[in-house]
Design goal:
- The complex is a heterodimer.
- Chain A is mostly beta strands.
- Chain A is built from no helices and eleven strands.
- In chain A, strands 2, 4, 5, 9, 10 and 11 form a six-stranded mixed sheet that branches. Chain A has a five-stranded antiparallel sheet with strand order 1-3-8-7-6, with no helix packed on it.
- Chain A is globular, with a radius of gyration of 13 Å.
- By secondary structure, chain B is mainly beta.
- Chain B contains no helices and eleven strands.
- Chain B has strands spanning 4-7, 10-13, 19-25, 31-37, 43-50, 53-57, 64-67, 75-78, 87-94, 108-109, 113-117.
- In chain B, strands 2, 4, 5, 6, 9, 10 and 11 form a seven-stranded mixed sheet that branches. In chain B, strands 1-3-8-7 form a four-stranded antiparallel sheet, with no helix packed on it.
- In chain B, a hairpin with a 5-residue loop joins strand 4 (31-37) and strand 5.
- Classes of the chains: A mainly beta, B mainly beta.
- At the A-B interface, strand 4, strand 5 and strand 9 of A face strand 4, strand 5 and strand 9 of B.
């Protein structure tokens, strides 16, 4: 089993719709990172969460960390075609860094 | 079966030495990457190879030289190691069968190599 599970694996939404991607760790989280994968540029850092209950927003993307559940969610409000891509979470468990399985997001205009 | 493997997992060495980190993927992917994770856990891409050809070469010192003997392997050789090279290095691969462009593929990461330069 994966140390870091992401769901859903893929997501297709109509432009303007809201969506949520989840990332669940089997280990205690010391830090949770969200990235967007972009070919030709590598990973693009989106946000980092460290404290339980922490929430951060950037433009229309909001990420939350529920430390008790060892889970984080990435929420996109009013999705746009520019949001399409692969979203990846990364987890710092103290002595190891794990990556999620990735979520492919397609936004239909 | 391990999809993306790196060796060694830990590497402790003296300043000035030359060392290599190996990466292998058994996923049949066309593209492989090397990332450096800094002290804040941020990942920065260093190199990317597609079918043994270099396609991304970010601003890294010439002391870092990637070598891809075949598309399943992308090794990272580092000459004259410096203290600032200490970091975790991650290898990744993706199936970029569409070639260069806007097509986006999930990258699969190795477990990381923890390099400590003394």
């Amino acid at each position: 089993s994966q140390e870091l599970e992401q769901s859903p694996q893929s997501l297709i939404v109509q432009e303007g719709k809201n969506l949520t991607i989840n990332c669940t760790s089997s280990k205690t989280l010391y830090g949770l990172y969200w990235y967007k994968q972009k070919y030709g540029e590598g990973l693009i850092f989106l946000m980092m969460l460290q404290k339980g209950g922490e929430e951060k927003s950037h433009e229309k993307i909001t990420a939350k960390l529920d430390e008790k559940k060892q889970q984080s969610s990435l929420h996109i409000t009013a999705s746009q075609p520019s949001h399409a891509g692969i979203y990846l979470c990364g987890a710092d468990t103290g002595n190891q860094f794990y990556f999620g399985t990735g979520t492919s997001l397609t936004v239909i205009p | 079966d391990t999809a993306v493997s790196q060796t060694p997992k830990y590497l402790v060495t003296q300043m000035g030495n030359d060392k290599s980190i190996k990466c292998e993927q058994n996923l049949g992917h066309d593209t492989m990457y090397w990332y450096k994770q800094d002290s804040k856990k941020f990942l920065k891409i260093m190199f990317s190879y597609n079918n043994k050809e270099l396609i991304i070469n970010e601003t890294v010192p010439n002391r870092f030289s990637p070598k891809s003997p075949d598309k399943a392997h992308l090794n990272l050789h580092i000459n004259s190691l410096e203290l600032g090279d200490s970091a975790v290095y991650f290898c990744a691969s993706s199936q970029d069968s569409m070639g260069l462009g806007s097509y986006q593929e999930t990258q699969y990461f190795g477990p990381g190599t923890r390099l400590l330069v003394l």
